[in-house]
Amino acid sequence: MKALAAVAVIFTTLVVHVPSGIAANIKFSTNTACWRSKSPTIPCTAPGGAKGIVYDYVCASPPIAVCKTEADSDFNPTAFLGPHGRHVQIGGHVICAEGALGDLNVTITQHGTGAVAEGTTKIACTGEESDWQVQAATVSSTDLVAGPATACGLLVISHGAPDARQWCREVIEIE
Known about the structure:
The chain is mostly beta strands and 175 residues long. It is built from two helices and twelve strands. It has helices at 2-16, 20-24; strands at 35-37, 43-45, 51-57, 64-68, 73-75, 78-81, 87-95, 101-110, 115-124, 129-138, 147-159, 163-174. The strands form two sheets. It has a seven-stranded mixed barrel. Strand 9 and strand 10 (129-138) form a beta hairpin. The relative contact order is 0.22.
C-alpha cells in the first residue's frame, strides 16, 4: 500500500509539473471517449490548488496524464438560441490561477436531433471566478431547437502553469 501511495505522489507531481512546451502543443478534444480515469482513482492538485482526479487523455499519441478538476467550472443553466437555430449563446464561469491564460472550447449537443454546436473563447485567469460567454455555431447539418441539451467545456491553460480541465453539464435549457 505504501508503494502505491508513493507512486501516486510521484505520478501526481509529474501531472502537475508538465513542461509548458508539451501542454501548449496538444489540441485536446471535448470528445468524452478521449478521457479515461485511472482505476483506482488517483487524486491530484492542479496549479492554483484545485483538487482533481488524474485522467489519461488517450486521443494523444502517446497518451498523456492530465489533472482534471470539475468543481471550479460550470455552465449557466440556460443558453439562448440564435436565428434559424444555427447559433447559440452560452455562458458560465471558471476559476484558474491568477495571471494564467487559457483557451476554452465549448461543445453543445442536443440528443434526439443530432444537432452539435461548437465555440471558443480566450480566458484571462484572475484566481477568482471569471465569467465567460461563447457564441457557438452549429457544425452539424441539423439545427438546434429550443429544449434540453448537454454542454461540455475544455479549458487548456498554455500560458502560466500548464493545466487542462474538462467538464460537462448534462442538462442546459436552450431558449
